[in-house]
Amino acid sequence: MDHALDVPDLAAAGGFTLRPWRLTDLPLVREASEDAYIPLITTVPAPYSEDEGVAFVERQWGRASTGTGYPFVIVDPGGRPVGNAGLWLRPEPDRASVGYWVVESARGRGAALAALRAVADWARRDLALTRLELHVEPWNTASVRTAERAGFRRERLIRDGVRTAAGYRDVFLYARPHDGTPGTPGVDL
Protein backbone atom coordinates (compact mmCIF):
# COMPACT_ATOMS: atom_id res chain seq x y z
CA MET A 1 0.00 0.00 0.00
CA ASP A 2 1.21 3.47 -0.70
CA HIS A 3 -1.53 5.73 0.61
CA ALA A 4 -2.81 6.68 4.03
CA LEU A 5 -6.01 5.13 5.32
CA ASP A 6 -8.77 6.98 7.14
CA VAL A 7 -9.68 5.04 10.29
CA PRO A 8 -13.38 5.75 10.82
CA ASP A 9 -15.52 5.70 13.93
CA LEU A 10 -17.76 2.62 13.94
CA ALA A 11 -20.84 1.78 15.96
CA ALA A 12 -21.00 -1.74 17.34
CA ALA A 13 -23.64 -3.82 19.09
CA GLY A 14 -24.36 -3.32 22.77
CA GLY A 15 -23.40 0.35 22.75
CA PHE A 16 -19.72 -0.35 22.03
CA THR A 17 -17.91 1.89 19.56
CA LEU A 18 -14.64 1.71 17.68
CA ARG A 19 -12.43 4.69 16.94
CA PRO A 20 -8.83 5.55 16.03
CA TRP A 21 -6.10 5.44 18.66
CA ARG A 22 -5.27 8.59 20.69
CA LEU A 23 -2.48 9.44 23.11
CA THR A 24 -5.16 9.60 25.81
CA ASP A 25 -5.39 5.78 25.42
CA LEU A 26 -2.12 5.23 27.32
CA PRO A 27 -3.98 3.85 30.39
CA LEU A 28 -5.39 1.14 28.10
CA VAL A 29 -1.89 0.31 26.84
CA ARG A 30 -0.66 0.19 30.45
CA GLU A 31 -3.39 -2.24 31.50
CA ALA A 32 -2.83 -4.41 28.40
CA SER A 33 0.92 -4.51 29.14
CA GLU A 34 0.19 -6.06 32.54
CA ASP A 35 -1.77 -8.93 30.96
CA ALA A 36 -0.07 -12.32 30.89
CA TYR A 37 -1.05 -12.94 27.24
CA ILE A 38 -1.59 -9.70 25.28
CA PRO A 39 2.09 -8.63 25.12
CA LEU A 40 3.08 -12.11 23.92
CA ILE A 41 0.96 -11.92 20.76
CA THR A 42 0.94 -8.19 20.03
CA THR A 43 3.31 -5.24 20.02
CA VAL A 44 1.94 -4.01 23.37
CA PRO A 45 5.05 -3.26 25.46
CA ALA A 46 5.92 -5.24 28.57
CA PRO A 47 7.02 -3.89 30.86
CA TYR A 48 5.17 -0.63 30.34
CA SER A 49 6.78 2.79 30.26
CA GLU A 50 5.23 6.00 29.02
CA ASP A 51 7.75 6.18 26.16
CA GLU A 52 6.93 2.60 25.12
CA GLY A 53 3.20 3.34 25.42
CA VAL A 54 3.54 6.37 23.16
CA ALA A 55 5.58 4.29 20.70
CA PHE A 56 2.78 1.68 20.65
CA VAL A 57 0.13 4.32 19.84
CA GLU A 58 2.39 5.81 17.18
CA ARG A 59 2.77 2.33 15.60
CA GLN A 60 -1.00 2.16 15.33
CA TRP A 61 -1.05 5.53 13.59
CA GLY A 62 1.78 4.32 11.34
CA ARG A 63 -0.27 1.34 10.17
CA ALA A 64 -2.96 3.68 8.90
CA SER A 65 -0.54 6.26 7.50
CA THR A 66 1.39 3.61 5.53
CA GLY A 67 -1.81 1.97 4.28
CA THR A 68 -1.24 -1.41 5.94
CA GLY A 69 -4.18 -1.51 8.29
CA TYR A 70 -6.99 -0.02 10.30
CA PRO A 71 -6.30 -0.10 14.07
CA PHE A 72 -9.28 0.64 16.32
CA VAL A 73 -9.76 1.20 20.03
CA ILE A 74 -12.80 -0.61 21.42
CA VAL A 75 -14.76 1.75 23.69
CA ASP A 76 -17.43 0.47 26.08
CA PRO A 77 -20.87 2.10 26.45
CA GLY A 78 -19.59 4.21 29.36
CA GLY A 79 -16.81 5.72 27.21
CA ARG A 80 -13.92 3.65 28.63
CA PRO A 81 -11.35 2.25 26.18
CA VAL A 82 -11.26 -1.53 26.77
CA GLY A 83 -9.40 -3.10 23.86
CA ASN A 84 -8.12 -3.15 20.32
CA ALA A 85 -9.51 -4.45 17.04
CA GLY A 86 -7.65 -4.31 13.78
CA LEU A 87 -8.03 -5.01 10.11
CA TRP A 88 -4.69 -5.73 8.41
CA LEU A 89 -4.62 -5.49 4.64
CA ARG A 90 -2.87 -8.02 2.44
CA PRO A 91 -1.19 -7.67 -0.93
CA GLU A 92 -4.29 -9.21 -2.53
CA PRO A 93 -6.79 -6.36 -2.97
CA ASP A 94 -9.83 -8.23 -1.64
CA ARG A 95 -8.40 -9.90 1.49
CA ALA A 96 -7.46 -8.95 5.02
CA SER A 97 -6.76 -10.36 8.47
CA VAL A 98 -8.55 -9.30 11.61
CA GLY A 99 -7.55 -9.44 15.24
CA TYR A 100 -8.66 -8.21 18.63
CA TRP A 101 -7.84 -8.13 22.31
CA VAL A 102 -9.69 -6.91 25.40
CA VAL A 103 -8.14 -6.07 28.76
CA GLU A 104 -8.95 -8.43 31.60
CA SER A 105 -11.07 -5.92 33.55
CA ALA A 106 -13.49 -5.68 30.60
CA ARG A 107 -13.69 -9.32 29.51
CA GLY A 108 -16.96 -11.23 29.51
CA ARG A 109 -19.12 -8.28 28.45
CA GLY A 110 -19.21 -8.85 24.69
CA ALA A 111 -16.66 -6.22 23.68
CA ALA A 112 -14.60 -8.53 21.46
CA LEU A 113 -17.66 -9.98 19.71
CA ALA A 114 -19.22 -6.57 19.11
CA ALA A 115 -15.93 -5.20 17.77
CA LEU A 116 -15.19 -8.20 15.55
CA ARG A 117 -18.65 -8.12 14.00
CA ALA A 118 -18.49 -4.36 13.46
CA VAL A 119 -15.06 -4.47 11.80
CA ALA A 120 -15.96 -7.48 9.64
CA ASP A 121 -19.28 -5.99 8.51
CA TRP A 122 -17.64 -2.63 7.74
CA ALA A 123 -14.82 -4.34 5.82
CA ARG A 124 -17.31 -6.20 3.65
CA ARG A 125 -19.72 -3.30 3.15
CA ASP A 126 -17.38 -0.33 2.76
CA LEU A 127 -14.11 -1.89 1.62
CA ALA A 128 -15.64 -4.71 -0.48
CA LEU A 129 -13.29 -7.30 1.01
CA THR A 130 -14.29 -10.85 0.16
CA ARG A 131 -12.07 -12.86 2.51
CA LEU A 132 -11.38 -12.08 6.14
CA GLU A 133 -9.04 -14.35 8.10
CA LEU A 134 -8.37 -14.71 11.79
CA HIS A 135 -5.82 -16.76 13.75
CA VAL A 136 -6.69 -18.17 17.18
CA GLU A 137 -4.56 -20.38 19.40
CA PRO A 138 -6.38 -23.68 20.05
CA TRP A 139 -6.35 -23.27 23.84
CA ASN A 140 -7.92 -19.79 23.65
CA THR A 141 -11.51 -20.99 24.00
CA ALA A 142 -12.94 -17.50 24.57
CA SER A 143 -11.50 -16.27 21.25
CA VAL A 144 -12.64 -19.45 19.50
CA ARG A 145 -16.21 -18.79 20.70
CA THR A 146 -15.96 -15.13 19.70
CA ALA A 147 -14.75 -15.98 16.19
CA GLU A 148 -17.46 -18.57 15.66
CA ARG A 149 -20.24 -16.35 17.04
CA ALA A 150 -19.08 -13.59 14.65
CA GLY A 151 -19.59 -15.90 11.66
CA PHE A 152 -16.01 -17.09 11.18
CA ARG A 153 -15.50 -20.76 10.37
CA ARG A 154 -12.52 -22.87 11.31
CA GLU A 155 -10.65 -24.04 8.23
CA ARG A 156 -7.58 -25.81 9.62
CA LEU A 157 -4.83 -26.00 12.22
CA ILE A 158 -1.55 -24.38 11.20
CA ARG A 159 1.40 -25.86 13.08
CA ASP A 160 3.86 -23.17 14.24
CA GLY A 161 1.63 -20.74 12.34
CA VAL A 162 2.31 -17.58 14.30
CA ARG A 163 5.52 -16.24 15.75
CA THR A 164 5.05 -14.54 19.11
CA ALA A 165 7.35 -13.21 21.79
CA ALA A 166 7.11 -16.67 23.37
CA GLY A 167 8.08 -18.48 20.16
CA TYR A 168 6.12 -20.16 17.39
CA ARG A 169 2.61 -21.29 18.24
CA ASP A 170 -0.01 -23.45 16.59
CA VAL A 171 -3.11 -21.55 15.50
CA PHE A 172 -6.48 -22.31 14.02
CA LEU A 173 -7.14 -20.47 10.77
CA TYR A 174 -10.64 -19.03 10.69
CA ALA A 175 -12.26 -17.31 7.71
CA ARG A 176 -15.49 -15.43 7.43
CA PRO A 177 -17.50 -16.71 4.49
CA HIS A 178 -19.08 -14.23 2.13
CA ASP A 179 -22.42 -14.59 0.42
CA GLY A 180 -22.83 -10.97 -0.62
CA THR A 181 -24.73 -9.86 2.48
CA PRO A 182 -22.69 -8.11 5.20
CA GLY A 183 -22.68 -10.05 8.44
CA THR A 184 -24.37 -13.14 7.02
CA PRO A 185 -22.50 -16.43 7.01
CA GLY A 186 -22.54 -18.05 3.59
CA VAL A 187 -20.52 -20.55 1.65
CA ASP A 188 -16.81 -21.08 2.15
CA LEU A 189 -14.50 -19.31 -0.25
UniProtKB/TrEMBL annotation:
Gene3D superfamilies for this protein: 3.40.630.30
Leading EC class: transferase
Domain N-acetyltransferase: 16-179
InterPro entries named in the record: Acyl_CoA_acyltransferase (IPR016181), GNAT_dom (IPR000182), Ribosomal_N-acetyltransferase (IPR051908)
Keyword Acyltransferase: yes
An example molecular function term from Gene Ontology annotations: acyltransferase activity
Superkingdom classification of source: Bacteria
Keywords assigned by UniProt, alphabetized: Acyltransferase, Transferase
SUPFAM superfamilies from the UniProt entry: Acyl-CoA N-acyltransferases (Nat)
Entry's transmembrane regions: none
Enzyme Commission code: 2.3.-.-
UniProt-listed Pfam families: Acetyltransf_3
Designated name of the protein: GNAT family N-acetyltransferase
Taxonomic placement: Bacteria, Bacillati, Actinomycetota, Actinomycetes, Kitasatosporales
